[in-house]
């Protein structure tokens, strides 16, 4: 089984605590009004909109409220329905008129009655309301004119009664009788006909509740369901306007408001948080080489970045374009730049899901966040160049636009103006994410001492002040460090360690020797006095060991990252200076009680990572190879194997994650690299240089002319 990263009990407690705390914080953000929809959670029907409320997405739905309003309007527009004119009523009234006319004729033709008696009789007719002046005219006209008046009165009444006469329209109908009288009649005759007809005009059409209800029902059914549409960004309620029921319906359809936190919503949010919270530890449990998770500083940074970007995303809930312009992809790039691609992949997935979970546009927002983040960090790679961030920004923009189009176009009406707006915002998000990640990784690296690839590349430049000082002060040790760096870097690539970190750490591992360069053999000129000769072994050992602490002091002075200081401290682990210890034992005649071995031991600690372990092995292998000059592959392999076995024998690799497979790969890599450095060379015999003139006089072969 692959060994796991050593983690103290306190570290495991911190890991568990942070998972729980981040999970609880995420849950609180998801169920809070702020996280759900900060602008609409408290609005209600009849309230005044404090800000302009716009649609966050395209939507098309059947508006029940607007449809009902239209149906009620159609009902209200229906006039009261009356029955058809009743012909029986017309016949009765015409018959009554004829009877009255006969009575008048009888009074007119009564020869025994005086004129006054006739007037009294006419005024006394119950069905008629004749005026005195009309009675006088009635008695004065000739029989022929009277016959004409009778016929006209019956004709006019018949014409009037054919029309629908409502109960509330009787007076209106009566007032229009005079216009129906023949124009051949003079004014007095027309007035006589009007007075005769008017009393007999009565309602012949009456209100029907049944028919009216049927008409209203037909009007309601004739109204088609009203389909309400909103484009993304279209104003629903302007600021200062009263919120109507139709507006509330739109908010409900868009998911912009909720009637209240239901237990179903809370349970769903809790389930999603638990799922995301379980994903991270389970993944890293299956990836035991994640040493960075043992650093409390790294764990806190990862947690804070996650929460801050999640809060920022939820603050933009309910907006139209803002969620697509939010640079959430910067979190994935930042994780990758500060740690590695694996961290970016693992943490960007739950961040993308939780950032858009439960929002109205989550269907396309989740894949947009996720795919753009993943493709962006893959484009960034090891984050070793400024241009890498530029390419990452472009990758985020292009993949985000593709994801948006893939999930939005099938759902909404094609709107090229809206699409261009979305694409513009997405490109802004892509390049702003790259910029934010670049700035934040630099700031965090400086403030928190995190080692980044850009930082390593910067300090590994040959013109870096500390390297220049190293080269000038201890050129031999500098060349040794270059050889060790090449050796360790090649092996790091083979076992999947960090080759850049390993190389830069190897460059600075012996920097402490620059303070006392002549004490170390690689900086001594051949033939000069050896500083170690006839010296006290303990003093020599103390001076040699001091290059570790001197190196740390120089590293701090020049503000090297703490991760590089680990290479200085750990490259000898807790081993001893064998040569000086053996000298002390010889002087003590092998009496171990007379020699304090701790005075010959490096302060350590032992290597705690694969990278520092590689440095220890490469340093020892290169030093022995330079001293022993192996001539064959077998000799090189034996040398490397001996170094590894010695280091293992003294338990220097116990705190690392190196496996037997890794050690085999390291051995093969070291052998290959050392072969290229210390390969045997052919010794060519010395030959006299031919005289120039003789060479010129030597005849050329015939085929030389064809070369």
Question: In words, what does this structure look like?
Answer:
By secondary structure, this protein is an all-alpha fold. The chain has three domains: 14-37 and 263-450, Arp2/3 complex 21 kDa subunit ARPC3 (Orthogonal Bundle), CATH 1.10.1760; 87-196, no CATH class; 455-678, Hypothetical protein af1432 (Orthogonal Bundle), CATH 1.10.3210. The protein is 62% helix and 2% strand. The chain has helices spanning 9-31, 33-36, 64-77, 87-109, 115-123, 132-140, 143-162, 170-175, 187-197, 209-222, 245-254, 263-285, 296-315, 322-325, 329-338, 341-356, 362-380, 386-408, 416-448, 453-459, 465-473, 475-495, 499-508, 537-557, 562-570, 578-587, 610-628, 633-649, 660-678, 692-697; strands spanning 53-54, 59-62, 227-230, 235-237. The longest helix has 33 residues, at 416-448. The radius of gyration is 53 Å and the shape is rod-shaped.
Overall geometry: rod-shaped
The appropriate CATH architecture of the largest domain is: Orthogonal Bundle
What percentage of the residues does DSSP assign to strands (E)? under 5%
Summed over residues and divided by their number, the pLDDT gives a mean of: 82
**How many domains?**
3
Which fold name is given in CATH as the topology of the largest domain?
Hypothetical protein af1432
